[in-house]
Every structure is written in C-alpha cells, then in structure tokens.
Amino acid sequence: MELSIEPLIYIGIFVGILMLVEGIYLMVFGKSISLNSRVNRRLDLLNKGANREDVLAKLRKELDQHTGSRAIPLYSLIASKAQKASIAFTPQQLILVMIALGIAAFVMLTLMTGASLPIRVLVSVIMGIGGVFMWVNSKAKKRLAMIEEQLPDAVDLLVRSLRVGHPFVSAINTVSKEVADPLGSELGIIADEAAYGRDVSEAIAAMAERLDMQDLRFLAVAVGIQQKSGGNLAEILNGLSKVIRARFKLFRRVKAITAEAKWSGMFLSAFPLLALIGINVMQPDYYSDVMETPAFIPACAVVAVMLAANFFFMRLMVNIKV
C-alpha cells in the first residue's frame, strides 16, 4: 500500500497562504495595526506627529471604505466582515492580495505536486479567495470579541470620569486614551467627531450599526435619552455596565454549555470528508470499481445533500438565542 503526501502538501500550502496574508498586512501597516498592541492605533498616529483632523480622516476612511464596495464582484463576500474587522487594506488592495496569493499558491502547487493544470488553477483560485476570506473572518471575530470584552470596563471608566465632573465628550476622550485597541481607537473617533460638531449619541449609534453590536445600541439609546430628557448619566451608565456584564456572563455560560454539542456537530460533519481523503490517500483505487456505474454520481449527490443537511441541522440545534 503506497501512501500519498499530496493532501498534506495542499494543507501546508493553504496554511502558508494564511500566514503570508498576515505577514503582508503587518509589513504594509506596521505592528500598530495589530490588536495585540498596548497603545491604540489612534494614539500611535498622533504620537508620530499627525494632527487630529488627519488621523480622524484616515481612521474614518478605513472604517467606511468597505461599506461602499459591496457592489464589486467577488468582494461582496467579505465586505461586511472587512468592515467589522476594520481592515486597513482598501477593497482594491484586498482583491490584489487575493490575486497575488492565488499566483503564489499556483507556483507552489506546480513545484510541489503533480496535479494537472486545471486542478492547479482551480485549487489556486480557491486558496487565494478562501485564504483572504478566512483571514478577514478571523480578524472580524477577534475584533468584535475584544470590543465586547472591553466595553464594560470602558463604561465603568466613563462613569468614574462623569462622577468627578468631566463632560461626557471629555470623558470619552479620556477613556479613549486609557483603553487599548480596538475599542480605544473607536472611542477616540467618537470623541473627535463630537469635537467637530457631530452629535455624540448619533456617533455611538453609527458605531453600533457598523459593528452590529447590541450592547453599543444600548449605550447609544441611554446617551440619547439622557440628552433629551436629562437625568444622572453616571448612574444610567453604571446600571448599563452591570447589564452588559450580566449579558456577557450569560453568553459565556451558553457558549460553554453548547461547546460539546458544537464540536460534536463539526466532527460529524467533517468526519465523512476526512474519511474520504484518508481512503484515497491509503488506497487511491478503492472506488475504481464503482466509479463507472450509473448510480455513482447520483449517490455522491445524495451523500453531499445529506452532509449539508446534517451541518445545517447541527448548527440549528446549538444556535441558542439569548
């Protein structure tokens, strides 16, 4: 029995594609673009000598550039995720990155595998597009998760600033300097927009819609109601902080409870495909006797439909709305 290492080569090339796109991103924009940076990107740009207006324009452009590009063919698949991830690449640059990664994948497949030309072209296109999609999706998930985790502490800092007598916009500006990215730069943008005349509740509401985050909508509503009807904003935000922490705790608990079921569903969905790959690696001619029969293609279609239905229903069973 002869084993083939080509499936491992394909996996290795795809992992290399993911690492390559992250390396290109950090090389072009520097380490300040990383969410692991302790100093948020807005402050880093200000410390480098850029004025406040230019920094605001640059960050606003990065946040909004993906929204108006959803009509671009192929790019619509990642436009929403790229917006939530605040990818600094322009849509045109992301498309160029897809093309460059596809070419790199084609070259590596040509050098390291014996696949035919149509297979190499198809796999290269899938790797170029899929690699960027997975990278952007991962960035969006990580960024939104970090904002959700940072938000209660940021609201607590707002409460403390308000209680010592700072105006709300000044409190937001103070908190934006104390909080790391991604929330630090987002709050800094709100503070700058308010300084240039935009209504602060409107700016927070726009941020909530852009990120599609319910807790930020609560914050925008609380600030808007206080502006219209008055009241102690510090006490309102203190209560909101407790609500956000309780929701966050509940979400984590639900995530822990459903983790086993989610992984079981992923395993049951992926195992048939992994078994198929394993069989073809260990014995490439295993299905050669049945591939020429009339029932082979219909049977494959039925199996594919059943796998898709299994994946859909397993996700449906563990998708608990809170």
Structure characterization notes:
Helices cover 76% and strands 0% of the residues. Helix 3 packs across helix 8 and helix 4 runs parallel beside helix 6 (117-163). The chain has 322 residues and is mainly alpha-helical. The chain has two domains: 6-231, no CATH class; 246-322. The chain has helices at residues 6-29, 41-47, 52-64, 79-85, 91-112, 117-163, 168-178, 183-195, 200-211, 214-229, 233-282, 296-318.
Brief sketch in words of this structure:
With 322 residues, the chain is mainly α. Helix content is 76%, strand content 0%. It folds into 2 domains: 6-231, no CATH class; 246-322.
Question: Quick one: overall form?
Answer: elongated
- Biggest sheet character: none
Report the average pLDDT across residues.
83
Q: Classify the secondary structure makeup into a structural class.
A: mainly alpha
Q: How many beta-strand runs?
A: 0
Strand/helix succession: HHHHHHHHHHHH
Count of helical segments? 12
In whole angstroms, how far apart are the ends? 52 Å
Percentage of residues in DSSP E strands: under 5%
Computed over alpha carbons, the radius of gyration is 25 Å
How much helicity do the residues have? over 70%
Which regions contain 5 or more consecutive residues with pLDDT less than 50?
none
**Number of structural units classed as domains:** 2
